[in-house]
Write a structure and sequence with these properties.
Length: 377
């Protein structure tokens, strides 16, 4: 049984490692094999980019060699896929190599799409790439005061990111002693300040406490980078001195090029995590079109379900569990305080008051991630 995993991010790596341990006897007996194809030899801890943007981490702290995170019985190749030939049970890589499979896992992730909005790339800072996070930190260091706009495109990776960056900006300017010279305004595209209702209810008084203005129903249409004005589809404008963008995301280009899903999101069964129309193709993490947050935790919980089901299919011929939509998100709420949102398809999050112990739990997880991604946590 040939298992092929395309994508070496959180979901793909956890699935590979879990399967490598669950199927150790089958792999030794040459009844199963696991191959992981990645676009990079390095694995990034993506939540750390926000810390880079505020000078709290260095970029090199975000990376580990992917090979060092994988069990020894996994075949790992840095050779991204260019063609998915699902009806032939095979993929073709950029190097021209064909990989046949019995079971395929697609874990290709997502990408930012600032180019969809005229002027956004030129006019705004963002922290969703290493280069962007470094550039944002330099802009923050040079900033002396004025209007700071936060603008959000949807869908985007990590739904809590707009809230966390707002807390971080408030604390950063306060620490520099210039908070009284800075006006922060938060813009969100729907008629409340967050897509998750209970997060909005929790965050609104926190923003009021910090003196952060809020404008909802602000769908960005264009940015006039020369005059530093952003304009919404609804007709409002905001003149900024510094603009922070959480840009719209799409799935990866290879998914769109192979017509596997609109905007790069692959249609996925919400419980089995199989690609619609294919019993032997699974989809994990950001690549899915599921109505759950695109976070590392969602990818982690989905990966555990997929790994257990693939192993049980090989061992007893049938899957054993379903994915219930589980997501767990830490929410940093300013210096030494954090809370969390845990929810699934049926149960919305019930946020508690932010506290110091949850903050230190979050800080600890930044270090534990490397154990987590190996499937040991």
């Amino acid at each position: 049984m040939k298992i092929l995993i395309v994508g070496g991010g959180t979901g793909g790596t956890i699935i590979a490692n879990n399967l490598a341990r669950r199927l150790v006897n089958e792999i030794r007996a040459h009844k199963a094999s696991i191959t992981l194809l990645s676009a990079s030899k390095r694995h990034m801890y993506q939540p750390g980019l926000l810390y880079v943007a505020f000078g709290q981490m260095m970029p090199d702290e975000l990376y580990r060699d992917e090979a060092s995170l994988l069990e020894s019985n996994i075949t790992f190749e840095v050779d991204p896929v260019s063609k998915f030939e699902l009806d032939k049970n095979q993929v073709v890589t950029q190097a021209g190599k064909t990989h046949k499979y019995d079971i395929l896992v697609i874990a290709t992730g997502s990408r930012i799409m600032p180019k969809k909005i005229p002027g956004l790339e030129e006019g705004a800072e963002t922290f969703y790439t290493e280069a962007g996070a470094i550039k944002m930190f330099k802009a923050l260091r040079e900033f002396k005061g004025g209007n700071v706009g936060i603008v959000v495109g949807v869908p985007h990776k990590c739904p809590i990111a707009p809230v966390e960056v707002t807390f971080s900006l408030h604390d950063y300017f306060k620490d520099r002693g210039i908070r009284d010279k800075v006006n922060i305004k938060y813009h969100y595209p729907i008629n409340r300040m967050h897509s998750i209702e209970n997060v909005a209810k929790w965050a609104k008084p926190e923003f009021d406490r910090m003196g952060v203005e809020i404008e909802t129903l602000f769908n960005l249409e264009e940015v006039d980078a020369q005059n530093k004005v952003m304009k919404s589809m609804e007709g409002s404008e905001y003149k900024y001195d510094l603009l922070i963008s959480i840009p719209e995301h799409h799935g990866m280009e290879v998914v769109e090029d192979n017509a596997l899903g609109r905007d790069g999101w692959i249609p996925t069964d919400r419980n089995t995590l199989r690609m619609e129309g294919y019993d032997n193709v699974y989809v994990v993490g950001d690549t899915t079109n599921l109505p759950v947050s695109k976070t590392g935790s969602a990818a982690h919980f989905q990966a555990e379900v997929i790994a257990e089901n693939i192993a049980s299919i090989i061992k007893i011929g049938t899957p054993v569990i379903d994915y219930d939509g589980k997501v767990y998100c830490f929410i940093e709420a300013g210096h030494d305080r954090a809370t969390y949102a845990m929810f699934n398809y049926d149960n919305p999050p019930d946020l508690k008051a932010a506290n110091k112990s949850m903050h230190w739990f979050k800080m600890s997880y930044n270090k534990m991630y490397w154990t987590s991604v190996r499937g040991l946590l």
